[in-house]
């Protein structure tokens, strides 16, 4: 038995132990007795600040943060820094969109975007359309995550576990704990995964720095980068417009259904307020060790075939097999924590918006059974799609977020603008989605001026939403009062409390 | 109430100024300078970590002083 064989076995054992741990979390968090829809989909609205923090950041940072971001820094240097604005602005949406959503969810028992939007605009068609748009754009994201999981398994076992088997293992583990524990399992496994991700990537960055530079001092590494690869520590001015608009697409992360669902699930609005400004600490400083690993890769492994290999290759070269196993478990955690939330969210959209929409008299037991069946079916579909996809993970993710971003104007109308109308929201959403697809896939109009498709979709969406809303009937006065009247009262109470302090 | 709004506007303005540090044109200017080296980092790299830290702090200040609940 040679040394390499031992290494992959050690790594695989650590990853297997990690998988067993998250399944155990699923078993531990499962509801004793019969579960309700509120329990399974929004954890009885009882999520505390600690778990809410980690479930948000772990859902935000997918496998891209571990593998793709390091690859981008390896090939393009700090140009990637310009996109960090998304890690600050997107969480702010937790407060801007999340706070009023929380109050409305608490008052009227909403569990999905479709329910809230459909109720405000008094339109079942809009509710179904929001649900369908969300589902359509969730699938590409799901398939990209499966692909990343398959690659991780294949890499850590040096090809002994095939890509397909890796994908199947990933899904079997995720489905097990989602079916067992629903939202609570997703939130708690996210917490375990979020902690594992940040701890492991910082340890990996430190170890690689010490092994390559001889100490924790990064001066030599940075000096080498600046003298030999100056283009990688500078951002050319012409890159800015692209990055500044791509972050607008990334607004989509916070209204992306898995993130949005957390707005309904937290215990109180104060949690949302603090999440909106503290999660960037995790999201941004996650990239410090990623930068060290990527730059060490540039200096010590300058000719990698694929930039995305930089993290596993640097680890294999410079770290012990135990650390490689733990970091790869972290990478797998990043994949799982996004995938589980997406699957669970897709199931809630299907069950609450579509199944209950068409069968309002169905019992919770029947609805839950359909939701769980849907998880198995949609995951199988994403698994099959992942075997045929050849598009880059980043491109897929950009379309998914840009697509879901098109729900934003109708949400803003329901939460902030009394002038919004049903037809305005419907037509804006349809136009926005069409523009995203056209500006992403039609070569003649692909990302005009270098600006992202999500941005163009949003601009057209807002324009149509505003113009059509001006010309068409608004929701009834009772509904406007139900939403805006209630939110105004909540704000007045909040201001009175603040003034009294 | 008016004073309350004015107070909030100041914290929003602080946040917007911090946000401007990581965007065009200030961010673009800073991201094209290698020197001076600070804490062993080229100016461009150091600048971004510091500017994002300031932006996060501005966000915390905003939440503490201006956000409801």
In a few lines, what is going on in this structure?
Chain A is an all-alpha fold. Chain A has helices at 3-29, 37-42, 49-60, 63-76, 85-96, 98-108, 113-120, 124-156, 163-213, 219-228, 240-249, 252-255, 257-265, 269-285, 287-300, 310-318, 321-358, 364-386, 393-404, 408-416, 422-441, 453-471, 477-500. With 69 residues, chain B is mainly α.
What does this structure look like?
The complex is a heterodimer of chains A (about 500) and B (about 70). Chain A contains 23 helices and no strands. Chain A has helices at about 5-30, 35-40, 50-60, 65-75, 85-95, 100-110, 115-120, 125-155, 165-215, 220-230, 240-250, 250-255, 255-265, 270-285, 285-300, 310-320, 320-360, 365-385, 395-405, 410-415, 420-440, 455-470, 475-500. In chain A, helix 9 (about 165-215) packs across helix 15 (about 285-300) and helix 10 (about 220-230) crosses helix 15 (about 285-300). The termini of chain A are far apart. In chain B, helix 1 packs antiparallel against helix 3. The model of chain B has no long low-confidence stretch (mean pLDDT about 90). Chain B contains 3 helices and no strands. Chain B has about 70 residues and is mostly helical. Chains A and B meet through helix 5, helix 10, helix 11, helix 14 and helix 23 of A and helix 3 of B.
Protein topology:
The complex is a heterodimer of chains A (501) and B (69).
Chain A: H1 3-29, H2 37-42, H3 49-60, H4 63-76, H5 85-96, H6 98-108, H7 113-120, H8 124-156, H9 163-213, H10 219-228, H11 240-249, H12 252-255, H13 257-265, H14 269-285, H15 287-300, H16 310-318, H17 321-358, H18 364-386, H19 393-404, H20 408-416, H21 422-441, H22 453-471, H23 477-500
Helix pairs in contact in A: 1-9, 1-17, 3-9, 3-14, 3-17, 4-15, 4-17, 5-14, 6-13, 7-8, 8-9, 8-17, 8-18, 8-19, 8-21, 9-15, 9-17, 9-18, 10-15, 11-22, 13-17, 17-18, 19-21, 19-22, 21-22
Chain B: H1 2-21, H2 26-30, H3 43-65
Helix pairs in contact in B: 1-3
